[in-house]
Write a structure and sequence with these properties.
Chain lengths: ~400, ~525
Amino acid sequence: MKDLKHLYYFEKLLEDANNDLVRQAKAEGRLALGYTCYHMPEVLLNLDGCFSVRLRAPRTGSMEIATYYMSNATCEYARALLERGLEGGYKFLDAMAGVDVCECMNRGMENMELLGVSDPEKKGFFWCNLDSPCSDDEDCVAHLREQLSRKILKPLYENYGIDVSDAAIRKAVERHNEICRLITEIGNFRKLDNPTITGYEFHILTLATYVCPKDLVVEKLRETLEELKTREPDPKKKFRAKVVVVGSEIDDPELISLIEDSGALVVADRFCYGSFPGRQEIVLTEDEDALTQVCRNYLQTTLCVRHCAQHKVQKRLDFAAELARDYHADGIIYEQIKFCTYWSYERALASHVMHNEYNIPTLSIDRPYMSRTSGQLRTRVQAFVESIEIKKIKAKKNREVK
Amino acid sequence: MAYDPKTGKGLGDLYSAEHRCTKRREWKGLKDTLYDYGCWLRLLGMLGCKLGPVLPQFFRGLKRYRWLVSYITTPAFLDRHTIGLRGYELRYTHQQFYAVLQNSAGMIRDLLERDENLNPHSKKAAELRSKTVIFDEMMPIQIMNGFPTLKGIPIQMAPIFVVGEVDQQANIYYIDAIEHYGLASDVCPLPAAEAGCCVVDDYPKVGAAYVSSSMPCDGSVASTMYSNRYFKLPNYQITPPQRFNEPEVQEYAVKNLWGCVEFIEKQFNVKFDWDAFFEGVKRYNKESDYMIEKWDVNCTDYPQICGAALALHREYEMQIASSLDPKMCKYDAKVNKLMKKGYAHSVETDDKPRYRAIVWSCPAHYYSNFTYWAQNCWGIKTLVDMECMLAYHHYDEHDKKKVLVDMARGYERMTMRSHSNGGYVNALDECWKMCEKFNANIVFMYNHVSCKNFAGLQGLFEEQARERGIHLIWIEHDLMDPRTVSRKAMRDRVNRYMTTVFRAEPLDPTLVDYDDDLTW
């Protein structure tokens, strides 16, 4: 396929947390609010006068200092962020909106706070450790609402004078929804028999919406959507199987690239920093305040493994199967970043359940934070693709015999 | 002193690399050996009385459940914790452990008489099951004080938690099972073994409803997805807030806890009995008072109830016995009386410890007598253990609203959770506070290699200890899996520190290097 016009532009934006658009927005006097997790409602960090930056540590190499502080047995993502923070890579932030939902990320944030990675000149800077509940009933909604009001909205208003009114939240939701609509429409091209967008390209676009001020990428996303409507697919399919990738945090597009180079086209992205969940519209009604509705939305739509009530576990399994069906995938790759306890449990269980109960071929892998050079991963994906092909051939033969 | 410099014989000679049990019982002098032997007989008698009525199920259980076999070694478990002890300390330890073991034996009897696998056609067992709620093990079951007609059983406690302390090899099979299933080997082996026990179908089937929890760590939360699928019972999840130092979170905590009460009421068609509940609360308050007194004494120059006798007892009393067993209070009163006598004796003889230490982070289940080894070998007295510093605040004894808030706070400060959750202050700052309070300059810093929670603070602990001049002795272990770090490797860390930093001589050189990889 012909290269997407703005792909290189988006790729460049992902090379640095403090990228051109972040700097531009900062120069306009807006506040950059760092966060890491879906449990921190992104939309509340995008009120007028501020924008969210979902933290990444692109081009991470050594993590020696972070390893000293957090040992080598903790999640590399958390360590990479700490290392980048200690290097001064997040000094541009005006607040850090952390969540206390997984041990490693929580400790990573606490280390950043104690080791002083923020800019001491920023007098309004605040740290947050959000206590996000483990389920989604109305008591949980009320609890999350209280936490967000006290730990995010209050300091935003008091320290920076940001308008945190109901009207301001509704406006932020509208802007958020526009991005969601664009990403959803772009993502729908992955449902085609011969998709006109690759998983890598889609991941680049989605990632850009997480790490840049949304209003500054929206125009180029619109253009990309228009471009895709007329984009000609490759005459001959370049992939041998379609897969859904399900799992923990992936902010490294090279991993998707590695999977696709191994013959598996990624048609759905059900992972942290992916579009499921995160790029679905938030529907607000007028009969209840916007904040409560936002809290309910995030608690009900999260697919985080931390939610272990029976109905939530079942929902995640069903959802993965639904994605495989809707996006015509031949299999699912369950992945986890090494040392992620939650996903280790989910991955082991789901790889059996998906195969035995849903009859969907499943590959189960763990990976480092930066996995672009992993020969082992490449081999495993290639073997998975081959196994899918063999299954298809056998199924075809069986049909012919019948 | 158990070591005889003339003959060169000491406590290390009791162990043999080829045997699971010690070569012989320790000679503690006539009086103490007689006392020790008497306690040993009392333990056997108690086990006989408790398990006698379910003897047929017990023998069937030995064939059905791998973990049950390990309980045969219970007397050896007690012996391990009393090696080298004399006088009052020997007596405290026996009393404390007896209280725990009599309750554990009761729990095993409860499991055996209810279990559907062992009593498939028994109407009595079915009737008992219909009135039993099973709980995740890492939370107290204090709530059951309000349901006197029902039985609450922490389901993983006997098959995984306690047995891992009784026999260091007991959990290995379950850990291997879950790792073969696909779980990464870097996760905490406690919830891993619990999930493994599901995978190999080794839990007794004893209840009609299941209360799971989010305590105390990521592994514990995630393993409930396995137990939920395995037990296939109506389920409620208790999910206390993470940031429990904030007063604002208590409203949610109470609602969540009360949700559990309503769940049990609905499932079993019973009403929460406030009178019975307040009786339990009174017992809890008394137990906490006894605990605080033990701590207070240990802050003085003459600490009394130390090491595992202090830690395991408190952990067990709050988490498992959960004020449901009036006998626990009775034994507490007895120990308290004894402790006062012991303290007076120590003052009189000016019996001060050589070194004063506290234990921080989660200790190795497979080496619960580690602190006694440190005491016998190097004279390091362990004054308090992080694991036993659970909730100790008083619960209101009359007001329904207040007592629920108190209980919610108690659940939030459960084993491990009280320090590993709620932010770094509970782990870091609290450690230094305890060093000051207990006047200790050594911290046995258990480095549980699979615990991400404490691993995430490793560098900060190191730096802050240095600033404060505290001897932080890092001791690697893998909680339930002695293959990752053996008992010997744990001891070596202390040996190296004591010889290189303190330039100390061991009190008993035979304990410096011996092989106990095979022992229970």
